[in-house]
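Q: Got a minute? One more chain.
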Amino acid sequence: MHERSKTAAAFAVSLCALAFGAIGSAAQEQAARRPLELADAQRTAPNFVGIDNWFNSAPLTVADLRGKVVLVQFWTYGCYNCVNTLSHVTRLYDTYKDRGLVVVGVHTPEFPFEKSAGNVQAALKRHGIRYPVAQDNEYATWNAYRNQYWPAQYILDQSGKIVFEHAGEGEYDTMERVVRKLLDRTS
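A: Always. Here it is, folded:
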């Protein structure tokens, strides 16, 4: 009986190793995909809901932005990775705002101190952010987009469909190419 237990245990270990190897391969394959992906369903972008404050703009709706290319960026000023993206997003805005690009920052706090409107306003000034920023303290817009990450970028086409999504830093050149391609459709 003891020998059978050893054999059964060895068999179970082998099965687990095979299963973990298959999972590992799938995970490696998924990680090898480009982080900027074409949104599969090209779903209509949710509206900006539950917003506590708007900075640098009157309140906006996705319907108001039809005909424009829109970059929605979820961020929070206390997130190192988010701060690293701000100069790139600001540069995109400055470069393409006159051609029809609208950037909407959605500031969704990770920590309680990030809920302060004064702290958000100070961060906008510190980082030179002049594009509209919505303060989403209760995660209403975050949840409407089914977002899970800081930072995250969503690019909306002129009809209000989400055509690209990206979580994290990087892919700045690719995002700029997408924005240019969408803007070129209307020029």
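A: The two ends are 79 Å apart (CA to CA).
Q: Perfect, thanks.
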